[in-house]
Design goal:
It comes from Streptomyces microflavus. InterPro entries: FAD/NAD-bd_sf. This is Fumarate reductase/succinate dehydrogenase flavoprotein subunit. Strands 1-2 form a two-stranded parallel sheet. Helices cover 33% and strands 14% of the residues. By secondary structure, it is α+β, with helices and mostly antiparallel strands. The radius of gyration is 14 Å and the shape is globular.
Length: 70
C-alpha cells in the first residue's frame, strides 16, 4: 500500500482500547515476519538522529527496505 503526504492512514493496525494498554495488546497479537519475506516490507523511520539512524541501519542490515525522514 502506498501513502501520500497528508493522507490519513486508514489501516493503522492499532488495537482498540485505552492508549496506555494498546502497546501491550499489539505486542502480544503481532505476528513475526519470516526472514524470507523481509524485503516485502517497508519500514518508515521518522527522525534521523543517533537513535533513528541506528535503527534504520540495523533494520536495513536485517533485510528490510527502510525509508527515513528527518
Amino acid at each position: 500500500t502506498r501513502y501520500t503526504t497528508g493522507e490519513p492512514i486508514a489501516d493503522a493496525k492499532a488495537p482498540a482500547g485505552p492508549v496506555d494498554e494498546r502497546w501491550d495488546t499489539r505486542r502480544f497479537e503481532a505476528k513475526l515476519v519470516n526472514p524470507a519475506n523481509r524485503r516485502k516490507h517497508t519500514v518508515i523511520v521518522v527522525g534521523t538522529g543517533l537513535a533513528g539512524g541506528s535503527a534504520g541501519a540495523t533494520l536495513a542490515e536485517q533485510g528490510y527496505h527502510v525509508v527515513q525522514f528527518c
